[in-house]
Write a structure and sequence with these properties.
This protein has 499 residues and is mostly beta strands. The chain is built from six helices and 26 strands. It has a single domain, classed as Capsule assembly protein Wzi (Porin, Beta Barrel), CATH 2.40.160.130. The longest helix is centred in the first third of the chain and has 17 residues.
């Protein structure tokens, strides 16, 4: 089930009032896993008192998702999506702050594009999709056909958007190919993997549905996880740098979800050499810390951390969530590690009658996503794999969503984003980075952006539709702002995309 599907948003809404194990911080999930979640949700709702104010609404939501997912008949499927995007917001480079190198671009309205182009002009993209699936396998192909127009002219485009093969043996799934990944709780850009850059080719393995471990490990509750290694392509520096990572999500309490994650950018043609064992140990910080080496591993760009969500159904379905991404933890400088080297994200979601209110605060660290040896940074096709904000940035988001009529909802999102491009250096006073500290070299004006985007989601016949319009003011502190606008229309053959 693609991470951007509205299925997850509906599962989030129902589970906020009727908590059951739902792994929202690790996407995608399979159809089989989501059907199991729906079954648990249905049982929880049916068991609720008949006078529960959300009971009938929850049953309708579960029925709508089940109708989209549980379709009998042939295992050959087809779908399509048409995406039209027009904006005068030109993509701009995200500058490194001197603590590494970075080759990435951003745009005021680029964060929800999932790898599609966002030129200073217009782009129309058709995404036909074919799926062949059996009980234990699936093959999916989604090409991307489109045209984009900007100041340099019109350019056609034909490439693979998603393509993968998937095999399930017992409850273990092995997948090879390009598919979207989303690790984190945020709707505005998780710190680890956010879909901002699109789908990169990877090989992954993990349980298809949640498992419960024996002995004392049962206390962790239902567990889902995945481990992957991907290729970031020939345009990386070094070319074909690898991205390896794992995340494990657990629910020791139906109201509490906890995810632990590690990403390591490593290898590539001409990248720092290392043995397979060293790269494997590098993926597990606890093993790394206990390993009998006398020097830090210097062949990878590693990010560790995770996410959590806590539910308070008695408080109008309040959800509070948090994400942490640590670029380089050092116990000898605990305060600096948590402030200068760690990205933090805090969010809350609450129902106010039929409306849903959400707020998020983001703060990325000084050198998050950039690196001296992996000079493209944690990117794919010049787009950040994690938070679209880039390093040393702060942002606040507030949104309200409400139903307009049956099958149609409206959403209004306000954003205030800023990034400090000032230059820094790092100094040490001894071997093995003793006395490490950051030193600010310049005081450059912040990159600022304030925006508002209105979105209407609905149904046209048997199709799903989304229309958005946005305005933004972008500027450098102390300089004249420029006004930017966005118009976006999406039509799709599925109301709730499930493949």
């Amino acid at each position: 089930m693609p991470p951007a599907s509205d299925i997850y948003r509906r599962l989030e809404a129902v589970s906020a009032h009727f908590p059951v194990p739902v792994h929202l911080g690790l996407r995608p999930a399979s159809q089989r896993a989501l059907l199991g979640t729906l079954s648990r949700l249905h049982a929880a709702v049916v068991a609720a008192p008949l006078d529960h104010p959300r009971r009938d609404w929850a049953l309708r939501e579960i029925a709508a998702i089940s109708h989209e997912l549980d379709i009998p008949g042939a295992r050959m499927r087809a779908a399509w999506r048409l995406d039209a995007h027009a904006s005068n917001a030109a993509p701009a480079a995200i500058d490194s702050n001197g603590l590494g190198q970075l080759d990435a671009v951003e745009s005021s309205f680029g964060r929800d594009r999932r790898g599609l182009p966002y030129p200073n002009g217009g782009a129309v993209t058709a995404l036909p999709l074919a799926l062949a699936a059996g009980r234990h396998h699936a093959l999916l192909l989604e090409p991307e056909l489109g045209y984009a127009t900007d100041s340099s002219g019109t350019m056609g485009r034909l490439r693979v958007h998603r393509a993968y093969g998937r095999v399930v043996v017992r409850n273990v799934v092995l997948q090879a190919g390009s598919d979207h990944l989303r690790w984190g709780q945020s709707v505005h850009g998780p710190l680890f993997l956010s879909e901002n850059a699109g789908a990169f080719p990877a090989l992954s393995i993990g349980p298809d549905t949640a498992i419960t471990l024996p002995w004392l490990f049962r206390l962790a509750g239902p567990i889902r996880g995945t481990l992957f290694v991907g290729d970031l392509g020939p345009t990386q520096r070094p070319p074909h740098a690898r991205l390896a990572g794992w995340q494990v999500n657990m629910q020791p309490w139906t109201r509490f979800e906890l995810g632990v994650a590690v990403l390591a950018q490593t290898g590539g043609n001409g990248g720092p050499p290392a043995t397979f064992l060293e790269r494997f140990i590098d993926l597990f910080p606890a093993i790394d810390a206990l390993a009998p080496q006398h020097a830090d591993f210097l062949f990878s760009n590693k990010i560790a951390g995770g996410n959590l969500r806590l539910r308070f159904p008695e408080l109008s379905g309040l959800d509070v969530y948090y994400e942490l991404a640590v670029d380089d933890f050092d116990g000898r400088r605990l305060r600096s590690s948590m402030l200068d080297d760690s990205g933090h994200l805090l969010g809350a979601r609450i129902a106010a009658g039929d409306a849903v209110l959400r707020g998020e605060w983001h703060r990325t660290s000084l050198r998050l996503y950039e690196h001296a040896q992996f000079q493209s940074g944690v990117t794919y096709r010049r787009r950040l794999l994690g938070s679209p904000l880039g390093p040393h940035a702060r942002a606040g988001y507030a949104s309200v969503e409400w139903p307009v009529r049956e099958g149609t909802s409206a959403r209004l999102t306000l954003a205030d984003e800023r990034r400090d491009p000032s230059q820094y250096t790092a100094i040490v006073t001894g071997e093995r980075d003793r006395g490490f500290q950051f030193v600010r070299l310049t005081d450059d004006p912040d990159v600022r952006r304030a925006s508002v985007v209105g979105t209407l989601d609905g149904v046209i016949g048997a199709m799903g539709a989304r229309v958005s319009y946005g305005l933004a003011r972008s500027w450098r502190s102390g300089r004249t702002p420029r006004l930017e606008w966005l118009t976006h229309v999406e039509l799709r053959s599925q109301v709730l995309p499930w493949f």
